[in-house]
Amino acid sequence: MTRSTVSVATIGVPRIGRRRELKFALESYWSGKSPAEHLLQTAKALRRANWTEQRDRGVTIIPSNDFSLYDHVLDTAVMVGAVPAAYGWTGGEVPLDTYFAMARGSQDGAASGCGHPGHEHGVTALEMTKWFDTNYHYMVPELSDDQVFALSSTKPIDHFLEAKEIGVHTRPVILGPVTFLKVAKSHAEGFNPISLLPKLLPVYQELLRELAAAGVDWVQIDEPALVLDLVPNERDAFKFAYDKLAAAAPDLKVMLATYFGALGDNLETALSLPVAGLHVDLVRAPQQLEPVASLAREDLVLSLGVIDGRNVWRADLPSILDRLGPAVADRPSEHIEVAPSCSLLHVPIDLELETALDADVKSWLAFSVQKMDELVVLSRALSGGRDAVHAELKASAEAAAARAASPKVHDPQVEARTAGIRDAMTRRRSAFLERRKLQESKLGLPPFPTTTIGSFPQTMEVRKARAAHAKGELSQTDYEAFLKKETEAAIRWQEEVGLDVLVHGEFERNDMVQYFGEQLSGFAFTKHAWVQSYGSRYVRPPIIYGDVSRSRPMTVSWWRYAQSLTGRPVKGMLTGPVTILNWSFVRNDIPRSQTCRQIALAIRDEVLDLEEAGATMIQIDEAALREGLPLRRSDWKTYLDWAVESFRLASSGVDDATQIHTHMCYSEFNDIIDAIAAMDADVISIETSRSKMELLDAFRNYKYPNEIGPGVYDIHSPRVPEAEEMVHLVKLARERLSDAQLWINPDCGLKTRKWEEVRPALVNMVAAAKQLRVAA
Fold first, then answer.
1. Is residue 575 domain-resident?
2. Does 716 qualify as catalytic in the annotation?
């Protein structure tokens, strides 16, 4: 007997456009080359294209308000009127330039539409950090203990009506009130933003009433905080909030969306809420299918997240149906939706754009639109039986079998070397304090030594030369001559400005992960598979499809050339194994830890080659170590054990006098400081400017012995901080750490900035260091 049709929902889709239209429109607006109207029209066209594509591919529940000009959490902060006083907003609609000042900062407050007395040097951006354990960054809402909320944007309603104009009935998506408060921060000591829930809920109630009045029948409310470790008062907050929301708009049905993990001990809470539907992630947490299906009330619509929204592998559709069938056999089809595990924001848009990929590898992949097709096949199979989609299921099974047997995936030599790793390979020869004496004697650096994190601006000229070389329009000889010229100019400028430890600028590198992956086995690369990291910053993550190894040195020649130009130390610059892993689409047929160890062995070989070439400092960036941390604390130790082991495996083969640096991006260190210390890097640089050095509290409380470079200016903002501002930040750092531990450096690499921003900022940074040396 044929069942009624199982619905297909997408939860959310990429915003950026097949050809990165949003990026170019944003950057054109920010640079003053085009008006706001051009940006807004581009955004509108992208939304309409997304809606019509989903409809045409057979998606039956299409989201709206999943689009953002910068970030959906920032959109929510603006929507509820959570705009800090520094941005000069006094009510009403939040101006576009104020929105972008919150996202990017502003050099001139008045010029940006957010003027505020006392901000003659502009305003800084909101803090930015990773969205749960993804590589997507969100702007952290900044709330005060006397916070006032007000509905200050009708964007969810506007986008619903916009879709309605073209005949698409959508399910608006909004970030839930509890998760919004959970991911927010306050500068008030001891203040928990969750306590603001009673003040916030009237805004959400008003929004739901207006959505219902506009003709919305279902709304998706995202509460990924439900997959975290929650304390009782936070579970109570969910019950309090959803009782209030249900009463505000009784006829409006709510799909409560959870993702990135298992509900676990929050399952009872989620199932007790007065909502009409529940979305669960069955890719990260397949084990929750049976308890959710068996415990959910009969009339609850279950949205089953069975297609991976965070990775690019083609699904094994017959296996998914084998798992789903028994669990949903007794549930009416109208109470089932098939969906990706989370928003498709985290994957590229369309595999068909990739015309140069290895045919075998391509056959194993699925991007956003292909995942929609997979969902439609599952819906048809669940609704009409497998015979209705026999050909599609056969093709899926054949692709899975071919991948599992492919010699492109498995390398016995790599597997044997990984099996031969021993504990001694993960330990430096001497403790840090002994190494430090040797390094101080060898390097002879002044107090508060200055350096940068590695990359310098990738100018239009650099990008044009790289593109011309890739197209065969610029010969290898001419391209290398160009890169040498850029490298020499960067070295000379660093000497001129007075930096103590130099970098070569990384002009030859397209991306800090891709550059290495292109020289390692087991990696595939794309041309158009962009995903959003933050704002207009998009990345094309490598795809790790097989065993990883290094066949030859990857960075030694460029380091050797740069060092030949100067008598000052030039750091060797590498990306660490955990970051390469976490910033790639990783194979899902073996444990991630096994792939990470393979990468670590390849980086270890490179470290030893750099040392043999004469490098006295080698930086192994682990920008993404913390973002791989599991969301549940009970799973942390397993991850941190193999992640730290992998870093140490990569870094521990050098002599004591060789100084190992690492860099870590936006990380809350308090809860993993033991693991950071266990990495045993001689110098760690971290991003601290937006947090006003608060992140250093973890190092002070731990009595961290090694050296630290807390970032003294925010490179994710175009504003140029004054020297006095940096001196003030270092003074805050000196309250927490000894002078002998401190290095002076930017928050992160400078690749995405312009030279006209970088030059004065680094001049000010060196001036700040000189002031500190005199004062000391």
1. yes
2. yes
